[in-house]
Design goal:
Length: 486
């Protein structure tokens, strides 16, 4: 994409910038090593103090951490970090912020419990709860902006002092936190900053940043089409009409997204968490995945397999364990997913066990007839054109090669739950999806493959992975199939 126009340049045309295509060539066979945290080189700004460029580069290298080693922090150093944050500007100079510092282990464990996860709450050296006094400078969220500015100032201070940290909005039930912290009703808590020393093997990379020219424009709004996501048509989109759990404008139907938009969304949102071992895994999901993988064929060492769009690599890690000696290639829509999955496999102790390739416009970047197995792990419902993706799977398979696919079933208790409850919320980080009728997809598969085995999984709307067979086969929450290319 062209560099954003400067203020003294001719006006930018009022038209969207065309998407930059992703080359449809596979990544090198040899996986690249994990990328260390680094900053983009910064030239010395004109008129800046000596060393400014080096300092800016060091600040830009700050990266979030969710894997702490439990090392303590002294009260003096923690207070110094928070005091640095107090130098941030605040709306009307009210400074109506308040920061509750928590280092007691029992309280950190309780904080983890209230959050419903976040193991780093227990393992960090300190939690700083970010609070503000209600009743002043609410307009344009200025009090929230003030606290956010102070928090980022603390993060930079911690970074320069040799600590790692992460800001967390997912802190759990506010009433429980209010009780734990003794917070008056006139104060609100908006997040928590976790500070600590990283584990030696903590992921060393910074989550990907969007290119500057993609998120800034001169004089008028101008943003590439792939970075503007679809919403349901409306005359206006009032902020307070939209909530995480109730967004009337959320467009869940991937057919109304382009492949480039899906790639962009999924590539950045997977970094909502760090690529640690066991990330994006639940017990229910694990039970269902085991049933899906029970359909995998026996492959000889050296056979080739392709896994398509596994997002955060939960299915990839299990696939590597299930298929020892098989040459697995992971095909994803974004290089950012590739980076995440590669590091996640390293964290799982699986090393360089997979190759990677980036898809463009939903096309697998492989020649015809090269693979013994293609795995589609609940991805057809994410595809703008699921029948075309099935066609791609057939194209790259050798004659006699296998397809193993699974999907969330529209004709199930879960499908009803999705229509009535789940789809009212914002589009999830895995990207837009619409459950598909198992019977319909079964007919699509039968057009190109010979079906060998199939299974329904889960009788309830959520929470179970019971096998569903017989007359109810096509009514399970999930439907999985193994089929062979003719």
């Amino acid at each position: 994409m062209a560099r954003a126009a400067r203020q003294d340049a001719p006006p930018v045309p009022d038209t969207p910038v065309p998407d930059t295509p992703v080359p449809d060539t596979p990544a090198p066979d040899t996986p690249a090593p994990h990328t260390p945290v680094s900053a983009t080189p910064v030239s010395e700004p004109p008129g800046a103090a000596p060393g400014a460029a080096a300092m800016l580069a060091r600040l830009a290298a700050r990266a979030s951490c969710r894997a702490f080693d439990g090392s303590p922090i002294t009260p003096d150093e923690l207070e110094a970090i928070v005091t640095d944050g107090l130098q941030a500007p605040s709306s009307c100079n009210h400074q109506n912020w308040h920061f509750v510092l928590v280092t007691d282990q029992a309280r950190k464990d309780r904080a983890r419990e209230v959050a419903g996860g976040n193991p780093h709450f227990s393992d960090c050296a300190a939690l700083v709860y970010l609070c503000f006094q209600k009743g002043w400078t609410h307009g344009n969220f200025s009090i929230v902006q003030s606290v956010a500015g102070a928090c980022y100032h603390m993060m930079l201070s911690a970074h320069l002092r040799g600590w790692r940290c992460i800001w967390n909005a997912g802190i759990g039930d506010h009433a429980a936190l209010r009780d734990m912290l003794g917070l008056p009703q006139t104060f609100e808590v908006q997040g928590a900053l976790a500070i600590g020393k990283p584990l030696p093997d903590a992921p060393p990379m910074k989550a990907p940043r969007r290119p500057p020219a993609e998120v800034m424009s001169w004089e008028r709004f101008d943003r590439p089409a792939h970075a503007v996501y679809p919403a349901k048509p409306a005359d206006a989109y009032p902020f307070f009409a939209i909530r995480n759990d109730d967004n009337p404008y959320a467009e869940w139907n991937p057919a109304r997204w382009t492949w480039a938009q899906v790639a962009d969304f999924r590539g950045y949102s997977v970094w909502a968490k760090s690529p640690l071992a066991g990330v994006y895994v639940s017990r229910r999901q694990g039970d269902a995945l085991a049933r899906e993988h029970g359909l995998l064929p026996d492959l000889a060492p050296g056979a080739k397999a392709i896994e398509v769009m596994p997002w955060g690599g939960t299915t990839t890690a299990e696939l590597v364990r299930r298929l020892p000696g098989v040459r697995l290639t992971v095909a994803e829509l974004s290089e950012h997913n590739v980076t995440f999955i590669r590091e996640r496999l390293r964290q799982e102790g699986l090393g360089d066990t997979a190759r990677f390739a980036v898809m463009a416009d939903g096309r697998l970047p492989m020649e015809d007839g090269v693979s013994d197995l293609v795995v589609l792990p609940q991805v057809l419902e994410h595809a703008p054109d699921p029948r075309r993706l099935l066609g791609e799977a057939a194209r790259v398979l050798k004659p006699g090669g296998w397809l193993v696919a699974s999907l969330r079933n529209a004709d199930s208790a879960y499908g009803a739950h999705w229509r009535e409850v789940e789809s009212r919320a914002q589009v999830p980080n895995q990207g837009p999806f619409t459950p598909l009728p198992a019977a319909t997809v079964r007919s699509w598969v039968a057009e190109r493959f010979a079906i060998e085995a199939e299974l329904g999984i889960g009788r309830e709307a959520v929470g179970d992975a019971a096998p569903v067979t017989g007359d109810d086969l096509l009514k399970g929450r999930l439907w999985a199939v193994r089929a062979r290319r003719d």
